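2024-03-11 09:14:02 DEBUG pipeline.ingest accepted 1 chain
2024-03-11 09:14:02 DEBUG pipeline.ingest length=309
2024-03-11 09:14:03 DEBUG pipeline.predict start
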Amino acid sequence: MNPDLSVNLCGNKFKNPLILASGLLGNDAALMFRVAHTGLGAVTTKSCSLLPCKGNENPTVLAWEVGIINAVGLTNPGVEEEIEEIKKLKNLLRNLKTLVIASIFGPTIEEIGQVARKISQAKPDFIEINISCPHADPSVRGSFYASPEATKRLTQAVKKNTSIPIIIKLSPNVADIASIAKAAQDGGADAISAINTVGPGMVIDLESGKPILANKVGGISGPAIKPIAIRCVWQIAQVVKIPIIGMGGVTSGEDAAEMIMVGATAVGIGSAIHYRGMNVFSKITKELEEFMRTHDYKSLNQFRGIAHE
């Protein structure tokens, strides 16, 4: 008998703990439907705002052996178009047991509340509030990511504008991520996702002596940041009782197991698509199953959070 990989997140049953993280595959319903067929619990749309956002000039992404640096700049078509794309995606997924997480952002608490109210029309299964993009201008993504009080007020504002479960996506680039997570829980968050990209960082072109990215700096993801992500999820799990979606550098089943051991209910996968291809979710699922068989684990609950014991 295969190990049981199912998880319950805020009353929603996932067939396995793997989630497509926001950003990697944009907002295109057909592309997210394609990845859903590779075997995962949920897909997350690229973050959207009230109005369309152009983002940064190219080049915006650079990959190297152990990481990716990007400054895409929260490019999106705006919430009105995103509503239609999510409706299309929900229709495509009607026969699959794959859930939809709509990611949103905004420059002010009030505007994020507006976006949450509007995106709820599409009836996603969850709404993720991205307060943590490390390279976007504060006038675009707000400046409340490092403040427990602002995070709490933001969460409360979103809760007033939707009945859909909300996830607050946190930044590792703070002095005390646990206090931010606790504030989100106190404000009524249904779950936490952590972490967003690390940084910002910079890479120099040796021939020109100039930064490679047009934005000069960008957020860092990929295997290089996994130890930071593991530490952050471990700290968050010590202070909150709501579920955690752990993400950051997960590229294998063993990485996913490590994230669950520090307390994650589900595991976000993003840059691993670059390193292992579009079918990375089925690969990680098989590797996680093999890890569980080798260690005689029948369900994820048997080793979730054991790093705290």
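2024-03-11 09:14:41 DEBUG pipeline.report The longest strand covers residues 99-104.
2024-03-11 09:14:41 DEBUG pipeline.predict end
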